[in-house]
Amino acid sequence: xxxxxxxxxxxxxxxxxxxxxxxxxxxxxxxxxxxxxxxxxxxxxxxxxxxxxxxxxxxxxxxxxxxxxxxxxxxxxxxxxxxxxxxxxxxxxxxxxxxxxxxxxxxxxxxxxxxxxxxxxxxxxxxxxxxxxxxxxxxxxxxxxxxxxxxxxxxxxxxxxxxxxxxxxxxxxxxxxxxxxxxxxxxxxxxxxxxxxxxxxxxxxxxxxxxxxxxxxxxxxxxxxxxxxxxxxxxxxxxxxxxxxxxxxxxxxxxxxxxxxxxxxxxxxxxxxxxxxxxxxxxxxxxxxxxxxxxxxxxxxxxxxxxxxxxxxxxxxxxxxxxxxxxxxxxxxxxxxxxx
Length: 340
Description:
This protein has 340 residues and is of the alpha/beta class. 27% of the residues lie in helices and 21% in strands. The chain contains nine helices and 13 strands. The chain has helices at residues 23-41, 44-52, 99-108, 118-122, 148-157, 160-171, 182-189, 253-259, 329-339; strands spanning 8-13, 16-22, 87-92, 112-117, 133-136, 176-180, 202-204, 212-220, 235-242, 246-248, 263-267, 289-293, 299-302. The protein has a nine-stranded mixed beta sheet. A hairpin with a 5-residue loop joins strand 12 and strand 13. The longest helix is centred in the first third of the chain and has 19 residues, at 23-41. The radius of gyration is 22 Å and the shape is globular. The mean pLDDT is 94.
């Protein structure tokens, strides 16, 4: 067998052509049963969009464009992790499972990552005063159902002492925060405590009505986010894994967030266009919005999981010329450089 350049599947036996079919026709025939099942089980419009996407013969798939060198180590990233390295709180709650890779990414960038459970703060054992960074991790907090990140946030907002701990941390000008997946959802609910987080959305059930786990393409936009500094204009594949990732903005907030430069990343298709249809836009967020930041850039929230793919080997697909470091390591190195 050998590849062809005309997008046809041809089988020749003994000099006679026994099959000569268009690749798209065969793929749609193979997929049609799954499409009908998906249309009955999930959102029917999303099922149709995914099925019709097969008609795009020239779809380039995941296309990478980087505006920086992933292998570049920033000066502050060098040296062993020790007492002089800034501490970052890797915050988790019941059900969170993304804390280990998050800690690994920050350790690799030169932080001292500290495992902090919400119970530590609720019990008064930790008040976040010794940390430069706070990271709310993702991965099925409260079973990833019924506004899981919202439930996490309510444990903070409705507890006076804990609310004061988080408000004090966000108010310190020498701190940064990151929320990923359920942590993104959680920090979005804490927007009243975060300076400059006006116009942020809530994150609700995916348009597909299903948990989405796939490799998607995002474009980094120009924003004040300290974590995404120097990355604007890049298109980078990233892992997504969420059931409630659709950004829901109050009236006028999307336009206001866009005008203020608070939209930090969005889903795009292989041609770099804003992803409006499923599955290039896996959750149905308007204008593909999937990351935002505060006005001073110290707080960034995002639905995808950069911590799961900061090493090249962790990506389900990557260009052949990538080295040990995947592009997302730059986020964590940016945090280290900003922390001094």
